[in-house]
Amino acid sequence: MVIIEYSELEMLIVRVREISGFDFSGYAKPSLLRSTSRYLTKHAMNLKELFVYIEQGGRAVYDLIQELTVNYSEMFRDPDYFKKVKTEVFNYLDSYPALRFWVAGCASGEEAFSMAILLKEAGLQDKSLIYATDLSNKVLTAAREGVFTLGNIRTFSENYLQAAGTGSLSDYYHVAYNRAVIAPELRKNIIFSLHDLTGDGVFNEFQFISCRNVMIYFSLELRQKVFRLLYDSLSLLGFLCLGKRETLRYSGIEQNFKIIDSELNIYQKIK
Q: TM spans, by residue (predicted)?
């Protein structure tokens, strides 16, 4: 693993911002340091060579940004969370004539597909639209394809059963060329699109926003900025869901929410 210092990372952040306009300064430094070291190791280059490489601009710096912002996910990650959404949240949303969901930081689509399955099994799919967004075009391309390894599917299937799925995960995909392909029926109500939580603005009003395991990569100041965006995007009495290691505490908007589940970080906007 190539090791770099914090001072070197700061120089890289400045140069990326100068070349591309993308600002990593609000990202958590330890996480960014690890991601940069992995990038250098993967591409067999040192920091000096990386600076020379990104001076090309265009595709070079774009590829760096894409790789440093890719996050890992899996279908029905934290099964207890999906069980709670199904029992506590969907009962409330059932009365709405139409529903808009936003999965922010959707990675390769795992959570969006999980939500689509949950909605289908709850009888809500036909009146629901899921917007799944990410900063990375690379992962969005993979999400639109909806193709996973069979090894991943085994893990996803275990999660699905623990999340109290009513059938079998195999009901929602078919196998082709030793890969699992998500069924078109499941993808029809999902819109995958590019969106930068740290720089882009409100683009719709939602009854449900999932932004799980994303805030952990941001500094407090940047988290507060993103929380304001999520708040402005959420309808009154809509639900905001965060990851297990995340919280609304110190967000600047916590007084506007009721806690539905403090352990799973599910909140409802009340003002």
A: none
Alpha carbons 108 and 129: distance in angstroms, whole number: 18
**Type of residue found at 7:** S
Mean pLDDT per 10-residue section of the chain, whose length is 271 residues: 91 93 89 92 94 90 84 91 96 96 96 98 97 93 96 96 96 96 96 95 98 90 95 98 92 96 97 95
Decide which of 3.30.70.100, 3.10.20.440, 3.40.1440.10, 3.40.50.150 is the CATH code for 79-269.
Answer: 3.40.50.150
pTM of the model: 0.90
Q: Give the residue among 103, 105, 186 at the shortest CA–CA distance from 147.
A: 186
Question: Are the C-beta atoms of 228 and 202 separated by less than 8 Å?
Answer: no
Domain ranges of the chain: 6-68, 79-269
Residue 236 buriedness (CB in 10 A; 0-12 / 13-18 / 19+): exposed
Distance from C-alpha of 71 to C-alpha of 138, rounded to nearest angstrom: 11
Helix axes 47-54, 6-20, angle to 10 degrees: 10
